[in-house]
Amino acid sequence: MPTITLPDGSQRSFDHPVSVAEVAASIGAGLAKATLAGKVNGKLVDACDVIDGDATLQIITPKDEEGLEIIRHSCAHLVGHAVKQLYPTARMVIGPVIDEGFYYDIAYERPFTPEDVTAIEQRMQQLIEKDYDVIKKVTPRAEVIEVFKARGEDYKLRLVEDMPNEQAMGLYYHEEYVDMCRGPHVPNTRFLKSFKLTKLSGAYWRGDAKNEQLQRVYGTAWADKKQLAAYIQRIEEAEKRDHRKIGKRLGLFHTQEEAPGMVFWHPNGWTLYQVLEQYMRKVQRDNGYLEIKTPQVVDRSLWEKSGHWANYAENMFTTESESRDYAIKPMNCPCHVQVFNQGLKSYRELPLRLAEFGACHRNEPSGALHGIMRVRGFTQDDAHIFCTEDQMQAESAAFIKLTMDVYADFGFKDIEMKLSTRPEKRVGSDELWDRAENALAAALDSAGLPYDLQPGEGAFYGPKIEFSLKDCLGRVWQCGTLQLDFNLPIRLGAEYVSEDNSRKHPVMLHRAILGSFERFVGILIEHYEGAFPAWLAPTQAVVMNITDKQADFALEVEKTLNQSGFRAKSDLRNEKIGFKIREHTLLKVPYLLVIGDREVEMQTVAVRTREGEDLGSMPLTQFSEFLAQAVSRRGRQDLE
Asked: Is 384 one of the catalytic residues?
């Protein structure tokens, strides 16, 4: 006779084994109708699954995070049902849940079109309206194989082969359609009404470009229509902010097929890039970092010593010369150890902070490339801190403070932090891991910052902190990293003379704040929709004359501003002033200076903002002071 303990501590006893759905019905009809699944003794199960002993139970509804994931997973199966009805020869591959949605990979003899996606979505809606139950059958392995053989689903058979120890599997029946999954899934299609298919793309079987190409249908699903509408609105806003479109419109950069994953920076974009680099250079110099420069092409012997050749070779661009193998560096750390190794260091020289704006190249799959957000050639604001074990906490705390200050300067105030701790396979003693993890946790605590603990998610060579920014649309971008490393200094022979004259290996702290300049510029473009704060704007002010009579004074104003350290341009074209104002407003120039006869006579400038605010006429010195204040605030005016 099972006794079921509910989250509020109340208990219900039954004189027979009972399903999750039956427990929900015993509580109330409303809960029974909303029940998607259950969590029995902490494990997610289907609503139809039976509990035959004492257990804790949480009823899962669409309001729960797990419920939303179940809805999305079931929507992927619904895609399969619709596709097989519309295109019977299609073969279904995998349909997992992803962030805010799902996808299904499909093998078919021709590429799907947007019209096909519309047809699939319409058929899904028709199937939902049938309000049918989704039936789960735990099926012996041999029978599963027969089911998929009979249906010609060879990819499903390959997936079964990948699970040789599974003697029974969950099959979920959507009427005549059957799919395989661990579950749980919705008990009825009425839970799937708030969905939308969003896009098509290509994919490879098992994610390997050497394998056959598949088609990937993406979708999103939510608990109700209101959530779906809010998501669609966010997506539409994100499309408006697409850095590729804005980058082209503002003359920032372009990419092209002849150099996949590489960025062609235009004057405006390179100006923005240089502002970032000069800012980070000053920040690092002010915080005790020494800037270095290391080679981009390095003999394979160093990559073999570091472990990259064995573990990372497929992501490295390689070349050969005079019977020697080389790799273009995918990261800077082994080269920084070489700089540390030049001359024996004393403990008195630690911590040693080496920084480099290191140009790296990684052979990312072509299908993963995305504007300047995901590239093959990029530059990191990379640095490595070589320190003693006793210095780990202080160095970590200083880096955390520095990172938060930098993000605030760029206008980001909502930062998420994750502390990833020791995995099962690791190097170094438990005592060293204890000290390292405690050092990072204490550094976060001393800064008064909340963080999520990620047990077992650290690298094999040390724990790490990840810093993620939340932009104006609520999207999360992982940028900064602080990674402790006990392994690489040992592999590459880095040593220092300790206080007792013995040789010791330093702890190495890999750290970056922006991550890569390319990706961070992309984030800034989308966050600000191209309307950068004055300190970042490629052109901070544009000077416009009304007629040719004011051209000389306009040029004089432009020259004075540039000599004062600002970035100004003049527009002396024979166009109406309204046309010029509109054009430069669309180009997101922060300040528009209009010069007419009155301004020439009074030696002033009429100042407008790109938002259309009229700041009135003022002497150039007054505007210069105003602009200097705006620049000095950096992105923090949006945080006040």
From this structure: yes
527 is catalytic: no
**73 is known as an active-site residue:** no
Name the pTM for this structure: 0.83
CA 393-399-401 angle, 5° bins = 105
Q: Which residue is catalytic, options 48, 181, 333, 387?
A: 333
pLDDT tens per residue across span 254-300: 999 999 999 999 999 999 999 999 999 999 999 999 999 999 999 99
Architecture in CATH of 3-60: Roll (3.10)
Catalytic residue (one of 84, 174, 196, 464): 464
Active site (annotated) includes residue 382:
yes
Of the candidates 504, 428, 510, the one whose C-alpha atom is nearest the C-alpha of residue 465 is: 510
- Give yes or no: 414 in active site: no
Q: Which fold does the domain 65-239 belong to in CATH? A: Threonyl-tRNA Synthetase; Chain A, domain 2 (3.30.980)
Q: Does 333 participate in catalysis according to the annotation?
A: yes
622 is catalytic: no
Name 370's Cβ contacts closer than 8 Å, sequence gap at least 6.
none
Q: What tokens does 151 get? A: 């249906």
Of 193, 281, 362, 370, the active-site residue reads 362
Residues forming CATH 3.10.20.30 domain(s) in the chain: 3-60
The CATH 3.40.50.800 portion of the chain extends over: 541-633
- Selected from 3.30.930.10, 3.40.50.620, 3.40.50.300, 2.60.120.200, the CATH number assigned to the domain covering 253-528 reads 3.30.930.10
Could you tell me the two tokens for 74?
């079931």
- CB-neighbour burial class of residue 632 (10 A; exposed 0-12, middle 13-18, buried 19+): exposed
